[in-house]
Specification:
The protein is an alpha/beta fold. It is 38% helix and 15% strand. It contains ten helices and eight strands. It has helices at residues 15-28, 44-51, 77-82, 93-98, 103-115, 128-132, 136-147, 177-194, 215-219, 236-242; strands at residues 4-8, 34-38, 57-60, 87-90, 119-124, 160-163, 203-207, 226-229. An eight-stranded parallel beta barrel has the order 1-2-3-4-5-6-7-8, surrounded by four helices. Strand 7, helix 9 (215-219) and strand 8 (226-229) form a beta-alpha-beta unit. The chain is globular, with a radius of gyration of 17 Å. Phosphoenolpyruvate binds next to strand 8.
């Protein structure tokens, strides 16, 4: 399977900046690695049309756990799908931290998103103090168990997991390939136990200050199937470098 590179643009880029990115990106993107892009939801339709010719898929950075109703300001996964979203990122540490999203709430969001036909990228990761006190694997296990609780009857084949150590996001610090591989192998084991039919083939992405100069040693690890990229995905030239096989 090709490596998967997912751009998380967070709350960045206006309409012109989205168009400028694609003008530069499409001119050189050769589809060696899959490229998915999550802009602000309001730009989903635009990003979908700009990337379509090159097979670039668009997605959202969060979604409601509800399909419709009196939830002022929320966005329904059904509406995201209608706008052209292929996937949704759920459980990003910024959502857990600033918007108080718990793994239990994320389980409800994952369930609704899958039922609406979106591929889910579920993010897990430990904080620095959790790592330093030796709790990394138990935190990850807990986030997986709670977030993925009772999903086995749903169509979860198109599920992706992203391991993003919180201390490595936007900080310039990256987990060493060995540290990342240790957690990825553990996630693989938990997924295979939970979903025996396909847990083994689930793509597991690494995220946290991934850049053109550190991506290859991370992708060389056995259980790292791609990357979720924030800062370095905003510049077309950097994201292009990440989307090329070496
Ligand atoms: C992210 O926000 O998912 C992320 C990994 O950000 P950065 O690449 O900037 O660390």
């Amino acid at each position: 399977m090709k490596k998967l590179m997912v751009a998380n643009w967070k709350m960045n880029k206006n309409v012109k900046e989205c168009s400028d990115f694609f003008e530069a990106f499409n001119a050189k993107y050769t589809q060696q690695r899959d490229a998915w892009i999550a802009p602000q939801s309001i730009h989903l339709n635009l990003v979908k049309s700009l990337g379509e010719k090159k097979g670039i898929l668009a997605g959202a950075q969060t979604a409601s756990e509800h399909i419709s109703g009196a939830y002022t300001g929320e966005i329904s996964p059904r509406s995201l799908k209608e706008l052209g979203a292929h996937f949704v990122i759920l459980g990003h540490s910024e959502r857990r931290q600033y918007f108080k999203e718990t793994s239990k709430l994320l389980n409800a969001k994952i369930r609704t998103a899958i039922q609406e036909g979106l591929t889910v990228i579920y993010c897990v990761g430990e904080t620095l103090s959790e790592r330093e006190s030796g709790k990394t694997l138990s935190i990850i296990e807990d986030q997986l168990h709670q977030g993925l609780n009772d999903l086995s009857k749903l169509n979860v084949q198109n599920f992706v997991v992203a391991y993003e150590p919180v201390w490595a996001i936007g900080t310039g610090k990256t987990a060493t390939p060995k540290e990342a591989q240790e957690v990825h192998a553990f996630i693989r084991k938990v997924l295979s136990g939970k979903f025996p039919a396909f847990g083994n083939q689930t793509r597991i992405l690494y995220g946290g200050s991934v850049k053109p100069d550190n991506v290859e040693e991370l992708l060389a690890q056995k259980d790292i199937d791609g990357a979720l990229v924030g800062g370095a995905s905003l510049k077309a030239q950097d994201f292009l470098a990440l989307c090329k096989d070496k």
